[in-house]
Structures are given as C-alpha cells and as structure tokens.
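Milestone M4 deliverable, item 7.
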Amino acid sequence: MTWDELGNLFHEDATFVNVIGSYLRGRDEIRQHHAAAHAGPFRESVLRAEVMDVRELAPGVIVAQVRTELAGDARAPGQTRRTVATFVIDRRAGLWRIAAAQDTNVVPPVG
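Output delivered:
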C-alpha cells in the first residue's frame, strides 16, 4: 500500500490519535505522519491486523475495533508492539472512509 492509498482510507477532515497521544487532523497530516515514521524507525516493519468487532451505530456509521501487531521497529529490535485501534467509519457521498481513529498500546496488566 502506498502512502497515498493509506491517506485515501480517511475522509479529508479525519482525525487520528496515535499510541503516544499525537493528535493528527486531516488526511494530509495523517498521511505525512505515517510516511515519515515509516521512512525512519518503522522502515522495515510489518503490520498485522485482525478485526475484533464491527457494529453499525446508525445508518451509514460504523465503529470497528482492530487488534494489531507491529514488528520491525528499529528502536526495539525483536519486540512486537500490540495495539487496539478504534475506527469510526462513515459513508459520505457514497464513499466509506475513516472519520476518526484512536490507537492504543496494549500493556500487561498491573500487579
């Protein structure tokens, strides 16, 4: 997938909060942020995703939770980052795209 293809998954006014809390607003900012990260420490990374749950909240609005595993972070060799991402996906002018996304690191329970 190219960075333009990734960007096209999002509406022009989409928002994205990544695992470290960076708030990205707009398709271009989301695309640019991911392209820069994957040109740097994630350049050799592999992302696997599994849909956990999908529900239609209202006609034309879906919320989905996706489990991900990211291997190949140059800053953490041999480690795999696990996250759960939530996507709000809606249909505008006949096109389904992501309106908002939040990605959260999965960490071991305390205690």
